[in-house]
């Protein structure tokens, strides 16, 4: 038997790993990487520290696994931007998907934001190896649409950055959003309100002139 081939994990092992990762997400998104410990994660997962360390080598291993999963999920909407589609429809769909992610994955967004604020010391290779090529690819798509006269001419990179900033705000600053909107407007409907506003903002600004 080839000893370099890793044995396939059992269902129970996969479930245990998922349980640990779910607990770690809660701990990391609350306390940040530096403020979190393996003991905290083990307690949140309802298992002993030695049992947890059977599945992951250390805190860094858990964090890296979480970030890799997160980045894959985070990039999915951008990957789906279709060069053959209608530009306005594709951008509107991208904005919608990002708002939905802010609604459905707020802890993941805060985890990512915490890592960025620390200078991305643990995920720079992922940013340069996965994120940058994808953004470069989609920037070329946007530039192509602009040259065809189907979008207003803007900097494609800053367009993508601005969509990230305006949509992820509703996850990273959710407490502030709800406090300012108040009880009448701070419920689940705030995400639909945000999506409609951002659609109007971007669609108006990106409409081809003449």
Quick recap of the structure?
With 210 residues, the protein is mostly helical. It has 10 helices and no strands.
Q: Could you give the topology of this structure?
A:
Elements: H1 11-31, H2 38-45, H3 49-55, H4 59-79, H5 87-104, H6 106-117, H7 124-147, H8 156-172, H9 174-181, H10 189-206
Helix pairs in contact: 1-2, 1-4, 1-6, 4-7, 5-8, 5-10, 6-8
Q: How does this structure look, described?
A:
- The protein folds into two domains: 1-56, Orthogonal Bundle (Arc Repressor Mutant, subunit A), CATH 1.10.10; 67-206, Orthogonal Bundle (Tetracycline Repressor, domain 2).
- The protein has ten helices and no strands.
- The chain is mostly helical.
- Helix 1 (11-31) crosses helix 2 (38-45), helix 1 packs across helix 4 (59-79) and helix 5 (87-104) runs parallel beside helix 8.
The CATH homologous superfamily name of the largest domain equals Tetracycline Repressor, domain 2
Report the major sheet.
none
CATH architecture level-2 label of the largest domain: Orthogonal Bundle
Number of strands: 0
Shape type: globular
Could you list the spans in which at least 5 consecutive residues all have pLDDT below 50?
1-5
Percentage of residues assigned to helices: over 70%
CATH topology tier name of the largest domain: Tetracycline Repressor, domain 2
CA distance, first residue to last residue: 68 Å
Strand percentage lies at under 5%
Q: Structural class of the secondary structure composition?
A: mainly alpha
Rg measurement, Å: 20 Å
What's the overall average pLDDT, rounded? 91
Query: Order of SSEs, N→C?
Result: HHHHHHHHHH
Q: Determine and state the CATH class of the largest domain.
A: Mainly Alpha
Overall domain count: 2
């Amino acid at each position: 038997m080839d000893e370099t081939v890793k044995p396939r994990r059992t269902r129970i092992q996969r479930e245990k790993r998922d349980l640990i990762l779910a607990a770690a997400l809660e701990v990391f998104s609350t306390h940040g990487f530096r403020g979190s410990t393996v003991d905290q994660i083990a307690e949140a997962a309802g298992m002993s520290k030695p049992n947890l360390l059977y599945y992951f080598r250390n805190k860094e291993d858990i964090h890296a696994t979480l970030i890799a999963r997160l980045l894959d999920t985070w990039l999915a909407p951008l990957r789906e931007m279709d060069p053959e589609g209608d530009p306005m429809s594709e951008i509107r769909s991208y904005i919608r998907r990002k708002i939905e992610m802010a609604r459905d994955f707020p802890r993941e967004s805060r985890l990512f934001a915490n890592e960025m604020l620390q200078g991305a010391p643990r995920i720079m290779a992922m940013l340069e190896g996965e994120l940058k090529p994808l953004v470069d690819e989609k920037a070329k798509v946007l530039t192509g649409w602009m040259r065809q006269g189907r979008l207003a001419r803007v900097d494609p990179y800053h367009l993508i950055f601005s969509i990230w900033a305006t949509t992820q705000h509703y996850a990273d600053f959710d407490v502030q959003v709800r406090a300012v909107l108040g009880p009448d407007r701070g419920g689940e409907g705030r995400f639909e309100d945000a999506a409609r506003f951002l659609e109007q903002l971007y669609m108006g600004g990106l409409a081809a002139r003449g």
